[in-house]
Amino acid sequence: AYFSQRLIEEQRQLSRSSDVTSSSGEAGAASAVADDNVLEQITARITSKLKDELKKELAKEEKEMIQQKDRQQGEMECFLAGELEQATCPICYELMKAPKNTPTLLFPCGHTFCIECLNSHIKLNSRGTCPYCRVKIQNQAPNLQLQQLIDGFAGRKEEIIKKVEKVTRDAAESADSTNSFSLRNVSLSDREQLEDYRREWRTVSMRYRIYTNEAKDCDAEIKEMESKLEATRIVRKHLHGELEDAFKRMQKLQEEIDFIESQLHQQKEKEKDLDADIMAKRKRMNLVNTTKDSLEMERAKIRLLVEHSIPDDVDVFLES
């Protein structure tokens, strides 16, 4: 449109000069030839000038396109670097870099945590739910795409940071296409600070939600434990009654035991007395046997003496 307008203006000037030439008098055929030569020169000059301006405009547009492409690529790398810097585990704040902090993707919710924190969470949480959204974990797998991006970023970190700083300085006056509002009037240092605040806000918010869910789970578990505690108290009260009954029965048994022990003691004393009586009787029996033996010997002696005097009918004599 610009070049068309310029061409129209040049043609108007040319027509005006032609009108002046034709109205100047009677130039004749020689004047007409001169006018044709002038027209050709003017046309050639205009064409050359338009070509030069067109080349300049095309070169300018090409340069702007290259700059815009570089800026877009830099902004993309800047955005990627910022996101990768935030590719930390929402629980431990560590960069999810293999093998210790391998990023692990949960199914079906799609949230990612480092494998170490995830294993610790599963050990503590018997329900097996996601730490962020509390959806039941059906399966898990390493997030290979994120792991490759993190590994690539870790290897080119310094290079990307320098490029990001350059692109950030070049794009400081343009609107931030990733924001829902414009930061055009904000200085470069303030923009960087605001971006840091936004990333920190996202990370802290995610951790806040995780611990909020954890608090809800703890509250539910506390209520469940309190109900179990109430049931335990009822059982304990019942067992306390059973214990009192058992003590009463044990008291009765103790009385029976005491009675039996007293009877046993009496029987032991009686047994002791009987043993003493038996010993005394045995001593007396031994004494009696000894006396009897001596008397038997005395009888035999007397019998011999009687037999010496009366050989016949000794027994009749002695018993008469």
Automatic annotation (TrEMBL):
Alphabetized PANTHER family for the sequence: E3 UBIQUITIN-PROTEIN LIGASE RAD18 (PTHR14134), RING-CH-TYPE DOMAIN-CONTAINING PROTEIN (PTHR14134:SF3)
Coiled coil (residue ranges): 44-75, 208-277
Originating organism: Hanusia phi
PROSITE patterns, per the entry: ZF_RING_1 (PS00518), ZF_RING_2 (PS50089)
Protein name: RING-type domain-containing protein
Pfam families found in the cross-reference section: zf-RING_UBOX
Residue numbers spanned by region Disordered: 1-32
Phylogenetic classification of the source organism: Eukaryota, Cryptophyceae, Pyrenomonadales, Geminigeraceae, Hanusia
SMART domains linked: RING (SM00184)
Amino acid composition bias (Low complexity), ranges on this chain: 22-32
SUPFAM superfamilies given in the database record: RING/U-box
Highest taxon listed in the record's lineage: Eukaryota
Keyword match Zinc-finger: yes
GO molecular function, one term: zinc ion binding
InterPro entries named in the record: Rad18, Znf-RING_euk, Znf_RING, Znf_RING/FYVE/PHD, Znf_RING_CS
